[in-house]
Amino acid sequence: MAWLQLRINTTSEHADAIGDMLSANGSQAVTFVDAKDTPMYEPKPGEVLLWPDTQVVGLFDASDDMKRIIDRLGKARVLGADFKYKLEPLEDKDWEREWMDNFHPMQFGERLWICPSWRDVPDPNAVNVMLDPGLAFGTGTHPTTALCLRWLDGIDVKDKTVVDFGCGSGILALAALKLGAKRVIGIDIDPQALQATEENARRNDVASRLDVYLPENQPQIEADIVMANILSGPLLELQPVIADFCQADGLLVLSGILAEQVPKIEAAYRTQFTLDKSAIDGEWARVSGKKHP
Questions:
Q1: Looking at the DSSP assignment, which residues form a beta bridge with residue 69?
Q2: Which residue has the higher pLDDT, 56 or 94?
Q3: Which whole-number Å values give the CA distances from 97 to 4, 60, 103, 264, in the listed order?
Q4: Residue 36 confidence (pLDDT)
Q5: Domains along the chain with CATH numbers
Q6: What is the average pLDDT score of the chain?
Q7: Residue 145 counted as an annotated binding residue
Q8: How far is residue 233's CA from residue 249's CA, in Å, rounded to a whole number?
Q9: Residue 141 labeled ligand binder
Q10: Is 282 annotated as a binding residue?
Q11: Is 82 annotated as a binding residue?
């Protein structure tokens, strides 16, 4: 099937309304793209962020009467008759195959691999986490996740109790379990993230050592290792909660942090932790350390 993309530049204030208008006029899918190439930082689970200058993209069947649709859109007050747009054909491809071809097994550190289920495992003797893109964020492709996975690969996880705060897809929880953790507690504000984490744990035969909770149901626990790959705002706001999960002499790793945000994060956690040198990957960073006795 041939497709057309209609692109409309607007502001975050009007993006949702324009997206609804595109859907009402037959768009098969609507996406929001940054119109000024501003980086999109990873949101909290369940949160949708729109940029100050947003491009709304509607996907239409090539047989649709686009002149009529554009005329109708121009009658809306939020756009006006002279609104700027770009209409372009979308190359006809096997999109499912194209999507699948973009995901390859990825190695993190010496032992750890993240592998999509439709690919051959490169090293059967390695620690292989089978994980497909799905309901929740986290397949290892984002630098924040990669920073945490490399850190996990470099420490002793065997027989440890681990908290994965903001577990998303469960990628860090699964990696910890595959590396020998005795028990992992996954916590997330999004029920779909918990569902994804549990499903991925079953696929990797580690579900018996995993428990997941919404924040309001999370247990009181002091873990050997605490991981929180979220955002700098929640890391600062929830510092007491995250720190309390970590037992004396326990290990902590934090990510979802921009490089320029590192000093604030370090200042917030240094009172209770002896911090390692922070790791930087492009514009993203990882903060880690050991809790004071």
A1: none
A2: 56
A3: 20, 21, 10, 43
A4: 52
A5: 3-92 (3.30.70.120), 105-291 (3.40.50.150)
A6: 87
A7: yes
A8: 25
A9: no
A10: no
A11: no
